[in-house]
Design a protein that fits this description.
The protein starts with a helix and ends with a helix. Strand 12 and strand 13 form a beta hairpin. Helix 1 packs across helix 3, helix 2 packs antiparallel against helix 3 and helix 3 packs antiparallel against helix 4. It has about 400 residues and is an alpha+beta fold. Helices cover about 45% and strands about 25% of the residues. The protein is built from eleven helices and 14 strands. It folds into two domains: about 160 residues; about 200 residues. The strands form four sheets. Strands 3, 6, 7, 9 and 14 form a five-stranded antiparallel β-sheet that branches. A four-stranded antiparallel β-sheet has the order 10-11-12-13.
């Protein structure tokens, strides 16, 4: 093949690559700029759209084989390298490494090869002149755009996910206990308030009301001291030493979700959830209320639009909710993510657990789960209330 034909083939390949990459960037960036679910996604989409237009302009300029066109093509190829590198880093920061990293690396390599090809195709006088002298207006535009895009990438992909954790305050209380001949009626409430500056999403929740019987006992001074020491040594935070009475195992009176999964709270939003529970009179001396919420930052984990699959097993109910992404670029740089919420149906084991998995059919991977929990600002918020119950009606009459 003659040198002229090799030059034309190289120019055609460089033009095709710039055109293809520019078309893809324009389509993806245009979609996210218009339909992105978050403001930073739309901003990033706008930047990618601008980069795609510049890549297409570089392809057209190279095809016309003029000095300004070759300079624009070189600049576009360098921009393609930057897009590939940022996309590569976005996936490394936000997701598990997989075969897609080869694609982003290929974009960097092919764009670099294109820049080198255009440089080789340029006459010697153009190489000495430099790009900015031929296209001076782009110097300031590209400099500002690159700086802004890098800052936006750092803020949206690295800084935000590791700061501003979800924060809810939860207060549980028993407000009224009404004795009756056949039952005690307990009325209470759980007050939830979002004290953080970002939206908070409730991934799973639990409300349990239980009754505890208390048996009379009298401990000697020594035995009471031993019980206090055992409590401290065992780091027991579920109870305290009691000299003249001892409570036994609790009996569940009411249990269920405190809130529907994927409920979210805007900043400073407050919600009061009332509850009512009943118990046989005289059977329990204490009523215990436990409220548990598994939460995450709702701005980056908007589960209310995700698809949910629910399965039922021995002693448990498990739901998997797909984490929706706010833009196409995020979908490309992130693998599948599911929030797994597990509720136990065993009346003796009140618990709710939340984990992150990459596949509903796979087991929980601790490394992936812990990394996703840090990324989404996961937190477990709990509150409890303990109140005495009146004795049976006969005892109240004697008093």
């Amino acid at each position: 093949m003659s040198r002229g034909r090799r030059r034309r083939a190289a120019a055609a390949a460089a033009t095709a690559w710039l055109g293809l990459l520019g078309l893809i960037a324009t389509v993806i960036g245009g979609h996210d700029a218009v339909a992105g679910g978050e403001i930073n996604v739309r901003l990033w989409g706008t930047l990618v759209l601008g980069a795609g237009i510049l890549l297409l302009a570089g392809a057209v300029g190279l095809r016309h084989d003029r000095p300004q066109g070759r300079s624009l093509a070189t600049l576009s190829a360098v921009l393609g390298m930057l897009l590939g590198a940022i996309t590569f880093l976005a996936q490394v920061v936000n997701d598990e490494p997989d075969s897609r990293l080869l694609l982003w690396g290929a974009i960097v390599v092919l764009s670099g090869a294109t820049a080198w090809t255009v440089w080789k195709l340029s006459p010697a006088e153009e190489r000495n002149q430099g790009i900015w002298r031929q296209l001076p207006i782009l110097k300031s535009v590209v400099s500002v755009g690159v700086a802004f895009s890098v800052a936006q990438f750092w803020y949206g992909s690295i800084y935000v996910p590791t700061t501003a954790p979800a924060s809810l305050t939860v207060n549980a209380s028993v407000e009224e206990i009404v004795p009756g001949k056949d039952r005690l009626t307990m009325r209470g409430s759980v007050v939830i308030r979002n004290t953080s500056s970002t939206r908070v999403n409730v991934l799973a929740s639990l409300l349990e009301v239980s009754g505890e019987p208390v048996e009379p006992q009298t401990l000697s001074r020594k035995d009471f001291g031993d019980q206090i020491r055992d409590t401290y040594e065992n780091n027991d935070t579920t109870g305290s030493a009691t000299r003249y009475a001892a409570s036994s195992n609790a009996t569940t009176l009411t249990r269920g979700r405190l809130l529907p999964d994927a409920t979210y709270f805007e900043p400073d939003e407050t919600l009061t959830v009332p509850f009512v529970a009943w118990a046989p009179p005289g059977e329990f001396a204490l009523v215990n209320v436990d409220a548990v919420l598994a939460v995450a930052r709702g701005r980056v984990l908007a589960l209310e639009t995700g698809k949910t699959r629910t399965t039922f097993g021995a002693g448990r109910v498990v739901s998997h909710t797909a984490v929706p992404e706010a833009g196409w670029l995020r979908s490309l740089t992130r693998g599948d993510r599911w929030v797994r919420a597990e509720y136990t149906t065993d009346i003796d084991i009140p618990s709710v657990g939340v984990t992150f998995v990459s596949d509903p059919a796979s087991d929980v991977a601790e490394d992936f789960d812990s990394r996703m929990k840090r990324f989404y600002g996961y937190a477990l918020v709990q509150a409890s209330a303990l109140d005495p119950l009146p004795g049976p009606p006969a005892e109240q009459g004697e008093k």
